[in-house]
Amino acid sequence: MEEDENSERTLELALNAAKREIDEAREELSRKEANKFTYEEFINKIDRMMEKQGRTACPTCNRAFEDESEARDLQTDLREMVRKIPDRVKAIKERITGCERRQERFVELYSRAQHFEEMRSQVESMKKTLDKTNQVGLYS
To answer: What is the DSSP letter of 35?
Structure first.
């Protein structure tokens, strides 16, 4: 019985871990998808600064760039990060799908373990009833 309780507890822990992993992956997916828009906005902000002010600054901290090449380098870096986002998003979605499948298997195993425990309890109860019946039959 204690072994079964440990097995059930292990399944419960595994199920909770799978849920956490899914939640974390979904959060990461949201951040990656949002990054695309944020980085594109930074790129556009640098362009607008150059057009309107003739100078550029970091789009997050407003530190002035020494020359236009620094701004262009940042834009290039940001464009590269935007370019990589779809592959990263795809990988995260695949990871989420795998985690969801694993979670489904744990839910099924957990359900079966509970059903098994219920059946075992019923068998124990029936054994006790049968033993009592046999004892009464011996003394009759």
So the answer is: H
pTM (predicted TM-score)? 0.70
Q: What element of type H or E holds 96?
A: helix 68-139
Domain boundaries, the chain: 2-139
Q: What spatial distance separates the first Cα and last Cα of the chain, rounded to whole Å? A: 35
Average pLDDT for runs of 10 along the chain of length 140: 70 90 96 95 92 85 88 95 96 96 91 89 92 73
CA distance 46 to 56: 6
Tell me, rounded to whole angstroms, the distance of Cα 136 from its chain centroid.
59
Whole-number Å distance between alpha carbons of 71 and 58 = 8
